[in-house]
Design brief:
Two copies of one chain form a homodimer. Chain A is α/β, with parallel strands linked by helices. The first copy, chain A, is 40% helix and 13% strand. In chain A, helix 4 packs across helix 9 and helix 12 packs across helix 13. Chain A is built from 13 helices and 15 strands. At the A-B interface, helix 2, helix 4, helix 5, helix 6 and helix 7 of A face helix 2, helix 4, helix 5, helix 6 and helix 7 of B.
Chain lengths: 402, 402
Amino acid sequence: MISATPIPATARPLRLAGWTTGMQRSVLRQMLAVVSQPGILSFAGGLPAPDLFPTVDYSAAMARVLQSDASALQYGPPFRPLKRHIVALMAQRGVACSEEQIFLTTGAQQALDVLSRLLLDEGGQVMLEELVYTGIRQVVAPCRAEILSIPTDLETGIDVDAVIDYLETGARPAFLYAIPDAHNPLGVSIAEDKRRRLVEIAAAYGLPIIEDDPYGFLSYDGHSLPPIRAFGEANVFYVGSFSKILAPALRLGWLVAPEELAAKLTVIKEAGDLESSALTQRAVAAYLDAGHLPAHLARLREEYGRRRDTMLAAMARHFPSGVTWTRPRGGMFVWVTLPERVDSTALLETAVERERVAFIPGHAFAGPGVRAGNYMRLNFSNCCLADIEEGIGRLGRVLEAI
Amino acid sequence: MISATPIPATARPLRLAGWTTGMQRSVLRQMLAVVSQPGILSFAGGLPAPDLFPTVDYSAAMARVLQSDASALQYGPPFRPLKRHIVALMAQRGVACSEEQIFLTTGAQQALDVLSRLLLDEGGQVMLEELVYTGIRQVVAPCRAEILSIPTDLETGIDVDAVIDYLETGARPAFLYAIPDAHNPLGVSIAEDKRRRLVEIAAAYGLPIIEDDPYGFLSYDGHSLPPIRAFGEANVFYVGSFSKILAPALRLGWLVAPEELAAKLTVIKEAGDLESSALTQRAVAAYLDAGHLPAHLARLREEYGRRRDTMLAAMARHFPSGVTWTRPRGGMFVWVTLPERVDSTALLETAVERERVAFIPGHAFAGPGVRAGNYMRLNFSNCCLADIEEGIGRLGRVLEAI
C-alpha cells in the first residue's frame, strides 16, 4: 500500500481516554506527602513498622535462592511450592482450598484490579462501603462504575441489610468489596452472623464478594474469626497479601478463586504485568521453608498489640469527652469520631502547625456524596510507644481546643 | 436501614464482565507449554539466556541494599537514583529526557497496560501490525478495541504509508504500537526514514505512538539507530525494560512520557499494583552504581551475536531453497518465510514428533483475519551454539520433507 498523501503540518494535541478527565490523585497519597515532613509525629500513614521487617532472614532466603536456583531470575510459571505454603496459611485462617485455587498476584492491589477486570463491565455497578480503602475506588474508576454506597456499623461492620435492600430493588452489582478484619480505615471486624449472611447472599443473588484480608493474621486479642470465605465458597473471592505480615516491597499477594476461572485470571494478569517476580516467589517460599513465619507473626502481634493498647490508653487519658473511637481487634488503624460540627481537614492543619502531629481526615476515604468531615484515622503500627504517648498527648491538646 | 427481606434460597451463577466471554489464552503461551518437554530442542520461547544473567553481581547488590537501607522493604515513592540511571541509559540510546519524564513500571508489560488505560476508550481503535507481540493484544482486549491492521515490510519495518492512509480516511486510533528494533516476532528494525516520518505523523495527527524497545540495547552489528523517541518527542511514549538486559524476574521497566502526564500515570499505576518493588528498584540501582552494566551488555551482545550468526549460518546450510528469513540486527528472533502452501502449525507437530525440535508458528502473532500460516519464529538467545547447530539441522530435515 503506497500513499502519496503528505503529512499535515499542523500539530494536533494528544487525546486521552474519556475517563481520565475526571480522575483524581488519591487524596490519601497527597496528604501523606504533606504530612511526611521531618519533625512531625505522624499517625497518618498506613505503613507497617520497618523495625519489624524480617530483613535478616529474608536476605538469607534471597541469597540461598540466588545461589542455588538457576531459574530464579528467569520468566517462569507460578511457583508451586509458594502456592503450597499459601494453602497452609489459608488453612490457619480456617479456609480450605487447593493449590489450583491459589492465584499469585503482584500484591493484593493487583488482585483487586484483576478481579475488577474479570467482573466489572463499563458503566457497571459496584457495592462499596461509604468509607473504605481508596485503592478499590481507583480500580473501578476506568470503568466509570456506578457506586452503590453501603453504610458500616462501627461495632459489627458492613450493613448487610443495606446490601440486601439494593439487591431486592433490582441492583445487579459486579461485586461487593468487603474487608473482614480490622477494616481500613474503620478498624472494625465483621461480626460472625454477618459473615454467614454475606456468604448466603453471595450464593443466593450471584453476588461476587471480593474479600480483602490484609490484616487477618494481625489480630491482637488471642482469637480471630475466620474470613468470609471460610463460611462459604460460592462467589467469594479471597484476597491475601504478604505486605503487612512480611514486607510491602515484596509486592506479593494472592487470590483464592474457583479453579475454573484460573485460565481467565491468567490472561488478565498477563496483560497487566506478565507474571509476578519468579525471584520474589522463590525467596518468600525459601523464607517460609525455613519456618520463620510463626515466630515472626507472634512478634508482630505482640508488638503491634502493645502499640494499639498504648494508643487506646493514651486516647482515654488525653481525648476530651464527645470524642469516641473504635477498639480494633487487629490491623493498624483506630477510627475516631469527633463532634459533628468539627471539620477534621481544617483540624489537620491546626494539628500540624501548632502541635506537629498528623492524622488522615475521614473524608479521604469517603465515596462521592458521603459526609465524613468529623472523622480521623490514626495509625498505630508505625510509631514506637514513646511517640504514640507523645503524639496522642499533642492530639489531645488540639482536640481540647475544638 | 433494617430489612426483613429474606435471602432467596435458589443460587444464582456468577456473572462475568462481557469482554471475558470471547477472551482467549495467549496461543503463544499455550504452545510454549506444549513444546517445553524434556528432550526437545526448542527455538520456541522468547527467553533470555539464564547462563548470562548477572546473578553474582545482582545478588551482591541485593545483599548490600538489604544490609544498609532500612526503607528497602517498605512502601515508598519511586527511587530517584534509579531514575537517574535510566536517564543515562536513555542518553546512550540517543534519547534526551529528564528524571521527571521517567516513570517506573512493573516490567514493560505494565507500561503498555498503563498507557492503554490512559489512551484507549471502550470500543476505541488501535493500530497494530498484522504480526506483532501478543501482549499488546491482551492489553487492549478488555476495551474491545477495534484493531486497525498495519502491514510490515521485512526489510524496513512498519508500513508508514498504511498508517497515513488510515488516518487520512478518518481513523482516530488511540495509539499506534511499534517496536523500533529487532521486532518480535519479525526481527526487523524500522528504517531511519520511517522513524522520522513516524514522529512527524505522531505530531501532525495527534497520534500517540507506543514505542516498545526491549531489544534496543541488544544490537550485534556494532551500530544501531536511535529509537523513534530520539527523533521527536510529541506524542511518542517510549517503553524500556530491564528484562532482556538484566533479568525478567526483576519485573522492572520504564516509560519516557511527558512530565504533565505524570499525575495521571501515577493514579493508573497505583490502581494496578500500588508501586513497583522498592527493594528491586534499590537493588537494580545498586547494581548500576557498581558500574557492572557496560561490561555485562558487551558480553550479552557478543554472545547473543554469536548465537544469531551461528543460527543464520546453519540455516543457510540446512534450509532448502524456497525458504527465506530475516537477518535481525539484534534482539532474539529470526522470522522464517516458508512456501505459501505450507501450514507451519501442522509442521510444528511433525517437527516435534519426528525430530524433537520446536518453533512458534507465525499465526500465534497474527491479528484477527490475518493469514500467517507459512511463517515460523525462531529464538536464538536461549540455546548454546551446539544446540543451535543441531536444532537447525533437524529443522532443515523437516523442511526438506515439505
